[in-house]
Design brief:
Length: about 240
């Protein structure tokens, strides 16, 4: 039986880098679609429905951040952002737009492939670790069997990363989950020092699940330790 190759859409306005990325991804057995500007990403996204995007943060037409924002209106496929600056501001800007991870130029082929494989792996169905099929707190439900979250019974459009954070907190509801534990569980051991990854994704998660994101009732910060998910009954009381 022939297994369908996963599709990666790569966007960069540097032709040499674009060809290099394409060649290495194809060697790793991915189907690769390449474009050189932001608007082309959006056109190909609808035509190809890629499994993952690799986007340069600086592109003509629309930059990587704006492209990611628009992709997030209809796609939850992972986004790996390429940045030329190893500064936290650049990384956070990409993550806030909806990217799942970043890679700083210059980078080697092994690191690129490792990041892509990790994102692909995490985007697959999240392995159910709890024995219960769902968890509900107030009007928020995490459905482990369907790998989705709902508010008042309506599905919430979470990215795979946002869902994994929420699911891990839900499995430990009422308890504090340390920052290291969340980073390791959601991204892997190599990301234990990437605190900004967690901060940005927690902020994005709150925008989607909280009635008042600036005054969260569900995803609570425990300063200096980590985060917890509040256990509320149907009346909204803890």
């Amino acid at each position: 039986m022939i297994t369908k190759k996963q599709t990666v859409l790569v966007a960069d306005d540097d032709p040499r880098l674009l060809k290099l990325i394409q060649r290495n991804l194809e060697i790793a057995n991915y189907r690769v679609v390449t474009v050189s500007d932001g608007p082309s990403v959006l056109r190909q996204a609808e035509a190809e429905e890629p499994d993952l995007y690799v986007l340069d943060i600086m592109m003509p037409g629309l930059d990587g951040r704006e492209v990611t924002r628009r992709l997030r209106e209809f796609s939850i496929a992972p986004v790996l952002m390429l940045t030329a600056k190893d500064t936290e501001d650049d990384k956070v800007a990409g993550l806030e737009a909806g990217a799942d991870d970043y890679l700083t130029k210059p980078f080697g082929a092994p690191e690129l492939i490792a990041r892509v494989k990790a994102l692909m792996r995490r985007a697959k169905q999240y392995t159910k670790e709890a024995t219960t099929p769902s968890f509900t707190t107030g009007d928020l439900t995490v459905d482990f069997s369907q790998h989705q979250a709902l508010r008042d019974g309506e599905p919430i459009n979470l990215t795979p990363t946002e869902y994994r954070i929420l699911a891990h907190l839900a499995r430990n509801a009422g308890r504090v989950v340390t920052q290291d534990d969340l980073l390791t569980k959601v991204w892997g051991p190599a990301y234990r020092d990437e605190a900004h990854l967690l901060r940005v994704n927690i902020a994005r998660l709150r925008q989607k699940v909280e009635p008042e994101p600036s005054n969260p009732r569900y995803v609570i910060t425990r300063p200096g330790i980590g985060y917890s998910l509040t256990k509320l009954n149907n009346n909204g009381q803890s």
